[in-house]
Specification:
Blueprint lengths: L1 E3 L2 E3 L2 E5 L2 E2 L12 E8 L7 H16 L4 E8 L2 H12 L8 E5 L3 H6 L7 H4 L10 H6 L10 E6 L1 E6 H7 L10 H14 L4 E4 L8 H12 L8 E2 L4 E4 L2 H15 L6 H4 L4 H9 L5 E7 L18 H4 E4 L1 E2 L8 E4 L1 E6 L7 H11 L2 H11 L6 H4 L2 H4 L5 H5 L5 E2 L7 H16 L5 H15 L4 E3 L2
Parallel strand pairs: 2-6, 3-6, 5-6, 5-7, 10-13, 12-19, 16-18
Antiparallel strand pairs: 1-2, 3-4, 7-17, 8-17, 9-13, 9-14, 11-12, 15-16
Length: about 450
Amino acid sequence: MRPTAPLMLLAATVVAAGTLTACGSGSGSDTDTVKVAFIKDTNSKVTVRDDYVRLVARQFEKDHPGKKVRLIPIQASENDYYTKIQQMMRSPRTAPDVVYEDTFLVNSDITAGLLRPLDTHLRTWDDWRQFEPAAKAAARGQDGRTYGVPDGTDTRGLWFNKKIFKKAGLPADWRPRTWDEVLDAARTVKRKVPGVIPLNVFTGKGAGEAAVMQGFEMLLYGTGEHQLYDPGAKKWVTGTRGFRDSLTFLDTVYKERLGPDVSDALSPNIQTNVAAELLPEEKLAIDLDGSWLGQQWQKTGGGNPWPEWSSTLGQAPFPTQHGDPPGKVSLAGGWTWSVPRKAQRPELAWELIETFQSKPNALEWCVRGAQIAVRKDVAADPRYRTSVPGIGFFTGLVGVSRYRPALPEYPRVAAAIGEAMEAVTADDASPDKAAADYDSTLKSLVGGRTVAKP
């Protein structure tokens, strides 16, 4: 561990699949140093988040003489990152004071006793009134208390290469109305533009929530109401045709060789490969992905600067299965800055979160990170509204965006969905068999709290 006056950087990296390195030593007795853990992009060239966190840390140190910020960037796939921070938060010796939490993990980490509520601070923080209600809800536990401050949200849709589409005879203003139209476009690309991957839909266990949320659930949520969880019955759903049809869509993509090679599709590095290579090198025609992709191609901090991306790539909403209202689907996610229950400096941690989410810094992150603003004053700022090409399109999807069930058992359910996706993609199981296996596993994961739907 080497100081860089005065900011100190402690690297914690996942160096092999399933193997996590130690994240530092010491008892955490330095009362003037606040430790912050956050995810680092698996592409080392992408430093957008690192640069922003350093910027805020230096500002905090300047505004708090005698205080220091120790950064703990964790370079890992998302699944490995989740595992790492949960390990760290279990001990006062290793727990950071501030941790960057994916909102889908908040309730499971609350149940595990890993996070502390922030309500006493939020009640007297004037800026909290600027946050959208949906953003506040994303960090709220089932006990009604709030365990994090969100720094932005995101939506999902289709990115497509207009140059490849022109070669294939497809329109530059492509707007598919059904799943079949998405597949038909991919088949047209395969037939008319050989050597190009027609369609990427993240799948399997390796990509984690990228596969489950922006792959499978983007499909599932377009097949009907309450296909995953029934909030009225407070039960998880089994036996739906929508679940089987979503797996069948994936089966079609990979059986017809419309997607990446199966070994590449199931790799934990597929997200990095898509953003750093396949899209900028114009080897991929259609990508079902997130609103943040533009950050990857920025001149400063982007992993692969690509000035032409805004004119080369188009965006289209992902359609519902048969075009039923509202006609398009998106899921919204996001991350929060939280304080572990075993943090040694919780008061200093809160002051750092306030600095992260001041209006100027929140605006800075939304601009740098291609984030969709969750503060009303940031959303109204002219700099935000003109920050990244396509931000208007993806912000427009917020109104139709759905959210994952904010329940403690969701991460376990998501893992089971990933297994079903992988079984179909690898041709180890038919969609019907994978769905049946999921139903069986689901019942044990949620203590039998399931309801069967056709």
